[in-house]
Amino acid sequence: MIADDLRALEAALFAAEAPMTPGELAAATGIGDIKGALDRLGSAYEGHGIALTEHGGRWSFRTAPDLAHILRRERPEPRKLSRAGIETLAIIAYHEPVSRAEIEAIRGVQISKGTLDALLEAGWIKPAGRREVPGRPLTFATTPDFLDHFSLASRRDLPGIEDLKAAGLLDPIDLAMEQQLRLDAGEGDV
């Protein structure tokens, strides 16, 4: 019976058009202990050309990371995000739900409607309701597609300040300002 459960789970994952939640998998297969079945199936695929992966609470089969280069095909390059788009996406990811005015306050400049439209079109952000303040501004949050695209299991997997420093991704001016703020706060040498 266990082998039949794993075969049903494997078939459901292969036939799925998109990654599936454990609840969707349980409903599709009738498996009661879906977590245990996913663990067993993942173990069965260890070392194979495909791997069972979980991103944002959704499960799917993907090419094993060490073999992905074999399957790269020439395809149209997706439209690249502008610097404003990347900054806006980062602000939304780290501060969600966040309104347009809050994004602009953090960035220090206004954002064009096209920036949010591009992120909405990519499926990486979605409207997340309205704030209960005058004007009732619309807020934005990231989507499961955002997590899936960037191979994040959850928002907790976003890099922290120390990770960004180690990767050399912080602007030297930002680092100097941060150091000055610490000195001003009486934290001494950093």
Summarize this structure briefly.
This protein is an alpha+beta fold and 190 residues long. The chain has helices at residues 2-15, 22-29, 34-44, 83-95, 100-107, 113-122, 144-149, 161-166, 172-184; strands at residues 50-55, 58-63, 98-99, 125-130, 138-142.
3D structure, described in words:
This protein has helices at 2-15, 22-29, 34-44, 83-95, 100-107, 113-122, 144-149, 161-166, 172-184, and strands at 50-55, 58-63, 98-99, 125-130, 138-142. It has 190 residues and is α+β, with helices and mostly antiparallel strands. The strands form 2 sheets. The protein has a 3-stranded antiparallel beta sheet. A two-stranded antiparallel sheet has the order 1-2. β1 and β2 form a beta hairpin. α1 crosses α3. The N and C termini lie far apart (61 Å). The model has no long low-confidence stretch (mean pLDDT 84). This is Segregation and condensation protein B.
* CATH architecture descriptor text of the largest domain: Orthogonal Bundle
Count of discrete alpha- or pi-helical segments spanning 4 or more residues: 9
Helix content: 40-55%
Lateral strand order in the biggest sheet: 3-5-4
Number of strands: 5
Q: Label the structural class.
A: alpha+beta
Tell me the count of domains.
Answer: 3
Question: How would you state the average pLDDT, rounded?
Answer: 84
The CATH C-level name of the largest domain is: Mainly Alpha
Major beta sheet summary: 3 strands, antiparallel
Query: End-to-end span in angstroms?
Result: 61 Å
Protein name: Segregation and condensation protein B
Pfam families: SMC_ScpB
Keywords: Cell cycle, Cell division, Chromosome partition, Cytoplasm
InterPro entries: ScpB_csome_segregation, WH-like_DNA-bd_sf, WH_DNA-bd_sf
